Each structure stands twice: as structure tokens, then as C-alpha cells.
Amino acid sequence: MSSSFVVFSGGSACNHILNAFHKVSNHQVSYVLGVSDNGGSTSELLRVLHGPSVGDLRSRLLKLMDLFNHEDQEAMAIKNLLSYRLPVHQQARDEWSLILEGRHKAHKRFNFCNGSIGNFLLTGARIFTGSLEAALFLFASIIGVPGLVTPVVNTDQTVTIAATLLNGSTLTGQCEISHPSTPISADGTRCIPKSINLNDRSTSFNEYDDTSSLHSDESTNLFFSKHVKEKLDSPIRRIYYVNDYGQEIYPVPNPKVISLLSTKQSLIYSIGSLYTSLVPCLILRNVGNAIAYSQSLKHKVLLLNGSQDRETHGYTALDFIHTIAEALNESQHIDARRTFYDNCQSDGYDTSSRHINIHTPPSSYPPFPDHLFYPSPISAFITHVIYLDNTTIPVDVDAIKSLGIQCISIQGSLSKTGEPVYLEHSLTEAIESLVS
């Protein structure tokens, strides 16, 4: 009997282990991804067209093509087109025009450098249909992949996260938290990573003023490297969502996410960025309660990263576990406060303020009673931890077991850069033995 999975993940790391879930479940897998990434060419789409980030969604859908129609030459040709990125030099606009076989002016200051054709199509579909969900359905239909990818928030607006560090400072935007953009040199131009080759700087596009965004702060996130692991000035204390004015907000998750958590049999917290991929999905309203009290979820599995990154420098496995539990308890806390203040409104308190900030409610409202919220135990959110036998992250098995969590060690390998990585066959065997 096959199982079914709901997988919380980012857009990159999990792509290499997808087949492990599909082999065990006969493709009964749904992926939930965030829409707050503001780095790379996505930053230009957000700057000019606004809306949610689609890069991770596009990446996952295209990767799924390898599982569903990898032998279809026409499908693979479509994948190659939608995976293609324009050059990073200033001739990118000309190449985009050649692809379109036309000269229609786009936004005159749009920077096409390193632009993803797939992101362009998915963003265009969102604008055309007026719906992110409809755009994903159209995109999935074009590439012949089932609708297995769900945005954690279904919105037509730009989604922004922020991080408060232990030293009190704040970082706004996923790219700034996880992969800061390249620095600005003394002459005011942006330093391009060595991995990006600007092999032609002689072409001028004065008519379109293309170069302006390369030399301004408008595209500060256009060039960055995911391989840079410069640690943060201080550890992250909390992640939260903000509006355009920097005020904390509490988005409602996509209803599909809550439905998946109430129908699937296994939950996977996948490898990847802890604070910018996983936590933004977990702190949303209703998510904590949905996971803690799900009647269908039999296994709640954390796939521990093989090594540290900028966000988790110095972390142990216990730190990963506590961070996830704290995020989900924060979700539950938000729900409890909202219920309390909704009741205050119905009890006749001043309701002149249409929008109540549940962290700082109107002065006429009573403070939230702490006894009305009881944090769920960690074991309500995580039942198993799978980790690599060659991981560089310390794993205290006894301490983890004392929390009611089972530990499973599997064989790992090394990447080309010498970092521990998951082997598909080892992970498949571990998951199969767990859910069978």
C-alpha cells in the first residue's frame, strides 16, 4: 500500500531528491513552496511587475518533468526553453527580442540580464489570468505535469519576509537574509560574482536606458551567489511577514495547504534553507494547528541538512528541531490571539479600528491572557529525523529521542565541493521502511 506526502520545501535543494517520494507513493506527492524569494532575475520581475515570486514554483514544476515525461522529446524541448536564462551581459535584451521575433518595447528600464524564460512565461500567465493558481495550472498543462505544486500563499501581491536578529537588527527580504546581493564598488557599479562572466560591456542601449538599472539600487538583488556562506552578524531570532511599510502582517495560507495537511499521510520538512524556505511556510495562520491536530498525518519527518549555511551557522540538529517547533507554535499563538480579540469585538469593545494588530491591539482592549495559549509539544510537529551518516551538523540522538522523536541515520555522499549530500536510493529505502 503506497503512502502520500505533503512536502514543505524551497525551490533548489529538494529538487535533487524528488524521486524518493514519488517511488514510494506512486506520485501521490504535493509540494508546498513559499513565494517570498526576491533574489536574482526575480527581483526585476517584482520591481517592475510586482506580484508573488514564481521562481521556486517554476523550478519545481520543470524538475517534475524528469519524472513524468523525460522520454518525450517535444516535452524536453519545452523544458529546455523554459529553463533557459538570458545572458548576463547587456545583449540580453536583444536575445529576448530574437526569442520573441519582435521589437515590442517592454518596460524601458527592465533589466533582462540572466532572465529566466520560464519565470517570464509564468509571470505573464499570472498577469493574463489574474490568478497565481490559474497561471500554475496553465504552466503545468503546457509542460505536461500534474498539479502537484502549491504556493503556500495564494496572492497577486508581492510577499516579503523579514528577520529580526538576536542583536536587535532587522533584515528585510529573503535575499538579504539568505543570499545578500553583490557589493557596490567604489565607482558605484555592482560587483558581479566571478561565476558570472560579463564578456561584453561595449554594447550601448541608450535608447532603452538598459544600463541604468545595472548602476542603480533598483536591481540590488539581481546578482548574487548561493555558494557564498558569509555568516550573519548575529543569529536569527524570528522570521515574520511585512507589508510595503515594514509593518508585521499575518497572511492566511492557501486553503489547499490546510487541505493537504488534513488528507496526506506523511509530512516532510525538506532539506534547504531553514529560515527562508521552511519557516515562512510554518508561521502562517492555521498551519500550526493543522499539523498538530491532523488526523491523517502519521509521520512528520524532518530531513536534516547535510551542512550549515549562512542562516544556520553553528546550529545542531536540536536547533533545527526547536526552530521548526517554535515557528509552528507561533502560528498557533497567532490563532489564539486572533480568536481572543475577535471575541473582544463581539463583546462590545471599541471597534473603530477596522484592522487590529494582534501584537499591539487598541489600548481599549484587554491584554491577551497567557493562560489561553498552551504550546504544543515538539513531538506534535516532528515524529522522525532523517540525517546523513556524514553530516557536519551535530546530532545528539539521545537528546532528540527524549523529545519523543525517532532518529534515522542513512548513508550520505559528497558533492563536487565536498559537502555531504543525500543519495536518492538511501533516502528512498529509509522513507519506504518508515511508511510501510
TrEMBL record:
Coiled coil: none
Molecular function terms from GO: LPPG:FO 2-phospho-L-lactate transferase activity
Family matches, as InterPro entries: CofD, CofD-like_dom_sf
Entry's transmembrane regions: none
Protein name stated in the entry: Uncharacterized protein
Species: Rhizopus delemar (strain RA 99-880 / ATCC MYA-4621 / FGSC 9543 / NRRL 43880) (Mucormycosis agent)
